Amino acid sequence: MSSDHWTDADRFEIEQLIRPLVNLYRISSRGAAVAFVRQKRMAIKEDIRFFRDENETEELFRIKARSLMEFGGRYDVTTPAGEKIGVLGKVFGKSLLRSTWSIMDANEQELAIAKERSQFWAIVRRVIDAVPYGDFIPIVFHFRIDRGDTHLGDFTRAIGMRDRYTLDLTGDAERTIDRRLAVALAIALDALQSR
């Protein structure tokens, strides 16, 4: 698959690579790496960059927090030039028992909702997150992505010691969600959940 056309894909594999001081992710589609993501750990204000290759020679887009701290948490997804692709927002009230994220277009109109599928596993995840070294305990992690009654896709963690996820948007045949925004959501669900 051409690296210029990965935004036409509906299925992505996300793998967190082990690196000191940063979270690094490789995003693949149809067996080919299409983007690499770098997140500095313990950053005061999130600014997560997506690059075409691991050497970070070309930035594709980024996730940037609007403020240092807020309950809901809004993150703009933009091109390197600052053009807004969309917005990701954690829905605070609904996230108390099951994490819920709003996926919005560039005009902040809601396109879809991503919500943890199982309340039981959501509570288990919160308990494990509170345990020292809980990050090393593999748990079920499954989000449904819906637009009203229409199921657009899923974001699922493979069970295992390493963080590996599948983002499947095959239900979004009309391409409601820009694939850059969807991939940004996948990284946000892993990297920003506890914020």
Describe this protein's structure:
The protein has 195 residues and is mostly beta strands. It has helices at 119-130, 179-191; strands at 11-17, 22-29, 32-40, 47-51, 59-65, 74-78, 84-90, 100-105, 110-116, 142-147, 150-157, 164-168. It has a twelve-stranded antiparallel barrel with strand order 1-2-3-4-5-6-7-8-9-10-11-12. A hairpin with a 7-residue loop joins strand 4 (47-51) and strand 5. The longest helix is centred in the C-terminal third of the chain and has 13 residues, at 179-191.
Q: What spatial form do the alpha-carbon principal axes imply?
A: globular
Our estimate of the beta-strand percent is 35-45%
Termini separation = 35 Å
Poorly predicted runs: none
Class from secondary-structure proportions = mainly beta
Oligomer: single chain
Provide key terms for this protein.
single chain; 195 residues; twelve-stranded antiparallel beta barrel
Lay out the secondary structure.
Blueprint: E1 11-17, E2 22-29, E3 32-40, E4 47-51, E5 59-65, E6 74-78, E7 84-90, E8 100-105, E9 110-116, H1 119-130, E10 142-147, E11 150-157, E12 164-168, H2 179-191
Antiparallel strand pairs: 1-2, 1-12, 2-3, 3-4, 4-5, 5-6, 6-7, 7-8, 8-9, 9-10, 10-11, 11-12
